[in-house]
Design a protein that fits this description.
about 280 residues; alpha+beta; Heat Shock Protein 90; 3 domains; 5-stranded mixed beta sheet
Amino acid sequence: MELSVGEASSAGRRIFTGFIRDLTEQQRAEFKLQELQSELIHVARVSAMGTMASTLAHELNQPLTAIANYVFAAKDLLERDGPQPLDMLSEAVGEAAKEALRAGQIVRRLRDFVARGEVEQRVEDLPKMIDEAARLALMGANERGIRTKFEIDPTIHRVIADRVQIQQVIVNLLRNAVEAIGTREVREIVVRAARDAQGMVRVSVADTGCGIDPAVREQLFEAFASTKEQGMGLGLSICRTIVEAHGGRIWAEPASGGGTIFQFTISSVDEADINE
């Protein structure tokens, strides 16, 4: 409810006039819009994992196969006649345990990424967020001959962010970079984090792909604009929604020597920013 009060005078008397406006419907509509937006962001995360399903299956198959091999090797050692080679048994069991932990980490990262939780911005470790997102997004990249470099300003640590949503942006940009490189001769992705002149942290993902089609460059972050034949054009639009909700901005520009650099900004809370 909103109350407005006006004052006037008539024949030496003050007259007060009040107006009451019911904002319930407006507030309900705004809340519903926020819910729909949050749901769309969540659906985009699940969809991204769907497109990566075969890669995820391959990544999980590796540690599970290794576990089976180490366990069978330990079984064979135990069934040998004579003294038990305890050092070899210990090594086989230890390696199996390492692979089990590796598989668990993959599943845990996937579960956290697709979880439907409340949007909450808090102080987060940016290098850790980038590392976790890259491990998820770059599964299978090494097998395709893609080299990834990380150039993170060592003074950058803490930012204000919803961890999963910002990781969603990073995952989306990295997957786009992998797809853009395709079968190009130079196959490299560079992830950077640096401070900008406004005191924000700028995160960038540069690829050596084919670049952006000039026909869609101006509408790149609009809904349903896509450079992919089978794409719906929602990924970058959702990235923009997330970044702007964090008080930053996102943009793309051509990279020198070919390819594209996608960049976005986010608020930092490191000591260097407080002292400035």
